[in-house]
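User: I'm preparing a small set of examples for a lab meeting where we compare how different chains pack in three dimensions. I only have the primary sequence for this one, and I'd like the structure in token form so I can line it up with the others. Please keep the answer compact; I'll paste it straight into my notes.
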Amino acid sequence: MSDESYQVGYGKPPLHTRFKPGQSGNPKGRPSRRAATLKDAAEILAEPVTAKGADGRVQRLEALEAAYLGICRKALGGDRRAILDIMRSILLFAPRREAADAAFEREVTAAREAIFRKLDLDPDQYDRMRAGLPPNGKQ
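Assistant: Understood. Below is the structure token output for the 139-residue chain.
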């Protein structure tokens, strides 16, 4: 196709303005908004705020904690929507917390066993010594 026979028109941009082979029309890609929005929300919810406690004293809490306490107070007052919100959060976060606690427990156990191996100690003997019992299991 020569330059003389090519007609510029609708859907036919000039050859010199076309993208070159291997060149993208959006080299930086689509901007990521979700990550920035979540980061902003996390920063806002981590900011300290002042709130009145149950005894009337003013205390400083993170914004998220203060919001959760407000929902709990509404639920204790009989607000059905607040009760449902609390139940949803418990059902959503309790399994994650238990999984995190289990993972932490596995890490602690593995670290403890590694220390005992390095010190050439039997974990059961160590536990007996801490309890004030003789290390060999006899009383």
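A couple of notes for your slides: Strands lie at 48-52, 58-62. The radius of gyration is 32 Å.

User: Perfect, thanks.
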